[in-house]
Amino acid sequence: MPVPPSFPNCPPGLEYLTQIDQILIHQQIELLEILTGFETNNKYEIKNTLGQRVYFAAEDTECCTRVCCGPARPFTIRIVDNLGHEVITLQRPLRCSSCCFPCCLQELEVQSPPGTPVGYVVQNWHICLPKFTIQDEKRRDILKITGPCVVCSCCEDINFEVKSLDETATVGRISKQWTGFVREAFTDADNFGITFPMDLDVKMKAVMIGACFLIDFMFFEHGSDNKQRTGVWQ
Question: H or E element: which one contains 183?
Fold first, then answer.
C-alpha cells in the first residue's frame, strides 16, 4: 500500500487513519494454543474494509504472567506498520475489572509514537453495564463507550456503542463479530470491526483501537476454565 502524505499534528505512522472511518481487527488462530491449551501471546492483523493489512499487532507478555493472570493479565501490545515500524504501543496495568471493586478498575494507555501518551481508556463503574471513557493525553474526557448487559450471544455480533460525552448521540461502534460455531467454541481468536467519524482526531482513532483490545481481553479471552466472562459482575 502506498504511504499516505503526512498531516500536521498526526503522529508518524498514523496518517492512514485520517482517511478512513472503519477498520477491522482479526486475531490470528494459534495452533499451539488450540492443541495444548497453553496461552500464547496474541497476534492480530488490522485491516481496511478491502481486507488489506494496514498494521500488525502483537502482545509482548511474559509466559508466567499469561499463565498466572489469564485474561486479566497486564500487557504491552506493539502495533507496527507494513514496514515494521512500531507506531502505537498499548499498555495495560494489572487492575481489577469486577463491579465489586470500583476503586481499581481497568485502564489502558495508548502511546504514539511509543513513549508518548496520546490517550487513555478508563473503565467506569456500573452495576451491570460495561462502560468506558476515552480520554485525551491530558486526561480530558472525549467519548463514552457502553456495552450490553450480557456480553455473549449466538449467531450475532456484540456491539459496544461509542457515544458523545452526554451519551445522547452515537458516533461510532466497536463490534465483536460472530465467527461461526467452530471458531467460537474451540478458539478465543476474535474478529472486531470499529467505526468512527471520518473527521475524528486521529489520536482518538488510535485510542478507540486500544479500547477494542481492552474489550477483547476483558470479555472475549478464555480463562483457564476455557470460559469467557458474560458481564461486569464476574
Answer: helix 181-186
Nearest Cα residue to 131 out of 109, 94, 104, 162: 162
Digit-coded pLDDT (tens) for 118-155: 999 999 988 888 999 999 999 999 999 999 987 766 67
Residues 163, 170 contacting (CB under 8 angstroms): yes
Q: How far apart are CA 47 and CA 30, in angstroms?
A: 19
- What predicted TM-score, i.e. pTM, was given to this entire model? 0.88
Strands 107-111 and 117-124: antiparallel
Owner of C-alpha cell 488489506: 52
Q: What does the alpha-carbon distance between residue 188 and residue 33 come to, in Å, rounded to a whole number?
A: 9
- Classify burial at 155, counting beta carbons within 10 Å of its beta carbon; exposed 0-12, middle 13-18, buried 19 or more: exposed
Which among 56, 96, 57 has a CA at the least distance from the CA of 73?
A: 96
Q: What is the pLDDT of residues 190-234, one digit of tens each?
A: 799 999 999 999 999 999 999 999 999 998 886 554 555 555 555
Cα–Cα distance between 203 and 186 in angstroms, integer? 35
CB 99 within 8 A of CB 82: no
CA distance from start to end of the chain: 43
